[in-house]
Design a protein that fits this description.
The protein has 104 residues and is of the alpha+beta class. It has a single domain (7-100), classed as Gcn5-related N-acetyltransferase (GNAT) (Aminopeptidase), CATH 3.40.630.30. 26% of the residues lie in helices and 38% in strands. The protein has helices at 36-52, 66-75; strands at residues 7-14, 17-27, 56-61, 78-84, 90-97. A 5-stranded mixed β-sheet has the order 1-2-3-5-4, covered by helices on one side. Strand 4 and strand 5 (90-97) form a beta hairpin. The longest helix is centred in the middle third of the chain and has 17 residues, at 36-52. 15% of the residues are buried. The mean pLDDT is 95. The structure holds coenzyme A (COA). Coenzyme A is lined by residues 24-27, 32-38, 61, 65-68, 70-71.
Length: 104
């Protein structure tokens, strides 16, 4: 184990809806495409649904961030809507409810 910093994740109440837990991630380029974003996100989602009382996980991304959206899809999040974010950029929102997630 190298203990090298490879990036960060967040898993926190969404600013516009505290009932939704927003997942986010950004990893250093050197470690892309090794499955780390999916692995780390899946661990957070599992912890949320199993231990933290999370009912709904959401994630947003710019449509051009295809890798980020692919990670959401691999985790089982489904496209919900496209809308204008407060940053004045159009974003896509994906979501996953607890009862849709395969906890096993
Ligand atoms: C998005 C990001 C976290 C992905 O991390 P990662 O550890 O490489 O992700 P994973 O390896 O778990 O999965 C990446 C998936 O995207 C796919 N992918 C990569 N580039 C892609 C592209 N241009 N178009 C479509 N899919 C792409 C990979 O093939 C992989 O899918 P697969 O397993 O079906 O082959 C990383 O690229 C990143 O930090 N980017 C920086 C900016 C960013 O997009 N941040 C997110 C803002 S919400």
């Amino acid at each position: 184990m190298s203990h090298e910093f490879i990036g960060w994740f967040h898993f926190k109440p969404a600013l516009d809806n505290q009932d939704e837990i927003e997942l986010g991630y950004r990893l250093r380029k050197a470690v892309w495409s090794k499955g780390y974003a999916t692995e780390g996100s899946r661990a957070l989602i599992l912890k949320g649904f199993k231990e933290l009382g999370t009912q709904r996980v959401v994630a947003i991304a710019l449509p051009i961030h295809k890798a980020s959206i692919r990670v959401m899809e691999k985790l089982g999040l489904k496209f919900e809507k496209k809308y204008m974010h407060k940053t004045n950029q159009e974003v896509v929102k994906y979501s996953l409810d607890k009862d849709e997630f395969d906890i096993a």
